[in-house]
Amino acid sequence: MTDTLTPILTRTWDDPRAWTLQSYRDSGGYRALDKAVGMEPEAILTAVKDSSLRGRGGAGFPTGMKWSFMAPPDGGPRYLVVNADESEPGTCKDTPLMLANPHVLIEGVVISSMAIGCEHAFIYIRGEIVHVYRRLLRAVEEAREAGLVGENVLGSGRTVEITVHAGAGAYICGEETALLDSLEGRRGQPRSKPPFPGAAGLYARPTSVNNVESIASVPGIVLEGADWFTGMGTEKSTGFGIFSLSGHVKNPGQFEAPLGITMRELLDLAGGMRDPDKELKFWTPGGSSTPIFTAEHLDVPLDFESVAAAGSLLGTRALQVFDSTVCVVRAVDRWTDFYKHESCGKCTPCREGTWWLKQILGRIEHGEGSEEDFDKLLDICDNILGRSFCALGDGATSPITSSIEYFRDEYLAHLTHGGCPFDPAASTLWAKDGHAKETVSA
Hints:
Elements: H1 21-26, H2 31-36, H3 41-51, H4 63-68, E1 79-84, H5 94-100, H6 102-116, E2 120-125, H7 130-145, E3 161-166, H8 176-183, H9 197-200, E4 207-211, H10 212-216, H11 218-224, H12 226-230, E5 240-247, E6 253-258, H13 263-269, E7 280-284, E8 293-294, H14 304-309, E9 318-323, H15 328-342, H16 348-365, H17 372-384, H18 391-416, E10 428-430, E11 436-439
Parallel strand pairs: 1-2, 1-4, 2-3, 5-9
Antiparallel strand pairs: 5-6, 7-8, 7-9, 10-11
Helix pairs in contact: 3-6, 5-6, 5-7, 15-16, 15-18, 16-17, 16-18, 17-18
C-alpha cells in the first residue's frame, strides 16, 4: 500500500460534525482569515500567484494570474463567483467537499474577495444537491453570526457578503459565462468572448469565476505560505488535489494527493480492481470530456503537463475505471447521449454535431452502418473541435476520437457480429442465437 496522501481539505471529513463552525475552528479553521485581515490585498494576491495554484475546475489556468487580469478598480462593484455547478459525468469532488467542510470554502471566499476588492461574492451551486445547498446556507449563517462574513469582517472594516444561489440543473451552466447569465436570471448560454468576465462579467462588472477547490485551497496558502504549497506536486503543477475514483475499483472514493501521483498508485490506494480476475481496460483521467486512457497509461504522472503530453487532459481528476467486461462503444454512446442532451443549442457545430454523433454511434452500437461511419465520426468531431462557443462541444468529441484510436477493433466487432458483441458478465462475443461464441481480448 502506497502512502502518498496529503489530507488537507479532506482531513476533517470523518469528524462527527465536520460541517459545523465549531468543528472547523477546533481544527484550526479561520486562522488564515485572522492573518489575512492584517494583510494588504496585494500581499494576498502575491501569495496566491507565488504558490502557482492552478484552477482545479479543469482548465488549469493560474488562479493568481486570473485575479490579476481583472480590470483595475474604478470605484464600482467587483465580484467573485464560485462555480459549484459540478455536473461532469464522473466528477464528484466539490460536492463532498462542500458537504463535509463548507467553512473551508467560505473562509476561502472571504480571503479571495479581500484580494480582488470584492464586497459581494456568489456561490453558484447545482440545484439538485439540495442537502449541500442547505448546508452551505447554514454555514454562511454561522459565519455571519460570528462576524466572519458581512460588514466589518473581524473588525477589519471590510465587507464581504456571500450569496448562495441554486441553479436549475443545466450542465452548460458549468461554463463560466453561461453560469453568469443564469445568475443574472437569463437562460444559461455561453457568451461571446471578448469581453472576458475579468473585464465585464456579472452585471457587466469585473468578475473572477473560480472552482470550489481552487478557492478552498487559498486559506492554506495564506496561512502556511507559498513555499508550503509549492513543496507538493510538481514544478509546474504545484500543490495537491482531490482525485475521484469511481467504477470498477474495490474502494471508490476521494483521494487527496499531490499532483503528479500516478493512476497505478491511486489504484493501489483504492484496493485494486473490484474483481481481480478482470483487467483494467480503459479509464478517464479527467472526466468523460477528456480523451480516455488505457492500462498502458497507468504510470503517467497525473499533472497538467504529463497528462497533456500523453494525449489527454487532467480536467477535474474524475478517474472513472472500467474493466474488461465493459463495451467501449456502449460507454461512449452513453456519454455522447449526455452531451447531445445537454447542448444549449446556441452554436451550430455543437447543436447539430452532437445530434449526428449520437445517431451514428447508435447505429454502430446496434450493428448497423459500415466502416465508413468511423471516418464520418472523426470528420464530424473535427468540425466541432475548436469551433463551438464553449468547451462542451470539444468535450463531446474527446471520448469518441480516443476510443476509435485505442479500440477500433471493438467498433469493427459491432459491425461484424450485428450488434454489441459483449456479454457484460463474461466479456465474451455473442452469436445471434444468444450463445457465447468466442472470447474477446480485452
